[in-house]
Amino acid sequence: MKKEGINRVARDGQFDLGGIFKNLERNMGIAYTLEGKGYRLGSSVKLLASQIQFMKLVIETGQLPYEIKRDIQGKARFSRSKLAGYADLLPAFGRLLFDSLVLPPDLILFHRIFSQHAIGQFSYAVKNPLEQSFEATFNDFVLNLRAEGKRIDIKRQMHGWQRNAVENAKRLASYLDALHQRYARLNVIRLDLLYRQAACQGSEEAKQWDQKLQALHARARDAGPQEPIDDLAHDLPRVDIITATQDWRHLKDNMRGKPSLFRDMVGYVCSIDFSATGGHYLHVMLAFESPWITPQEWLGDLIGQYWVEVTGGRGYFRNYAQGGHKHATTGLIEFDDLEKRPRLLSELMLLARKDQFVRVAVPPKSKTFMTGRFPMSSFSESEWRRAEDLASS
Fold it and tell me: Residue 330 to residues 226, 291, 317, 380: CA-CA distances in angstroms?
């Protein structure tokens, strides 16, 4: 497989917007039991993807929602652009503020102008011919967004916001390619490393959590996108990022002393993810050198049980190779596998780019995406140093 093809996903600035928000929806809108049963709760984040696409059109094009022309009798005629298709969603966009989520500069710009503009007086796109001011108001709203965006240099701000996600993506693509170049076949294990305190006990507890989440989201909407709120006053079983980070370091440091499990491990990818009810947890991809086919389901279970041991019983795990729905990106992946290699890259890229559009509020300098060291023999010394510099930046 050509390296150019492998890196195509990393270069795509709008990579799989739907996939990223599908993952975010799963984390922000579903609580799981220890057995994996899910309960939907909170408010959906799916519309954020549409709001981001709307703002992309505002920032990167010069089109207006409507071209308004009048005939000789003075009757207005309208032609619509892609922006006009978002008219009915504007009121919903104005409510898309969530506890624990930090919005990017373009969405903050949207909320600031929306709260001040006459567009907020319309609950829907007016269809009554006697009230045709909506189209002109929508056009003016877009012009205001563009003018303010130009004043604050929104493109530069967005570039800065997305830089970390883009660098994560570049590193991931290079790292996976380096592993495949160095090892003819990899045995891939994927696990969610979770916390018992965050597991839902059933439908009644899910209802209680839903009420608490709805109240938190309402507070976030009242506060606005840039007003800090007390995110500790939630009475939800959230695990903080410091705990998750320390437990990951403990597990990683202990790998050296556990050769029965990790002797053949040649690489890893770790993402610290966030659940609206349970707080932070880990998703890990562990790659083992595999000159023969090994039972990854069995090894994954043993590593998961070791996570339980390392956390003193606070943790539990979900093995992607377990059960009747074996995950397509686990198990043996050959160097020349044109199906599983790109699929593994694409799925892990969702984690590398998870902060590209919105991000979870975490303390400054917190790292939520990590990979192992590049295999030395797959790079020249200068290439290896550049890759390591990228990892630490």
Answer: 41, 16, 16, 29
CA distance 308 to 316: 6
pLDDT digits (tens, 9 = 90+) for 120-136: 887 554 444 435 588 89
Domain borders along the chain are 47-156, 163-392
Residue 240, amino acid = D
Say how far residue 375 (Cα) sits from the centre of its chain. 27
Q: Please tell me what DSSP assigns to residue 83.
A: G
Cβ atoms of residues 166 and 369 within 8 Å: no
pTM for the full predicted model: 0.85
| Residue closest to 175 by CA, chosen among 367, 390, 20 | 390
Contacts of 377 (CB under 8 A, 6+ apart): 182
For residue 331, the one-letter residue type is G
Contact 286, 310 (CB under 8 A): no
CA 99, CA 39: separation in Å to the nearest integer?
19
**What amino acid is encoded at 349 in this protein?**
M
Residue 175, CB-side half-sphere exposure with 13 Å CA sphere: 29
Tell me the CA distances in angstroms from 288 to 187, 322, 333, 350, one per residue in order: 5, 18, 10, 22
Whether the CB-CB separation of 279 and 237 falls below 8 Å is answered with yes
Burial of 26 (0-12, 13-18, 19+ CB in 10 A): middle
Token pair, residue 172, equals 């991931």
pLDDT digits (tens, 9 = 90+) for 194-236: 999 999 999 999 999 999 988 888 888 877 676 554 555 568 9
| 3-class secondary-structure state, position 319 | strand
- What DSSP designation does 159 have? H
User: Is 212:235 a contact under the CB 8 Å cutoff?
Assistant: yes
Encoding tokens for residue 256?
Answer: 């050296």
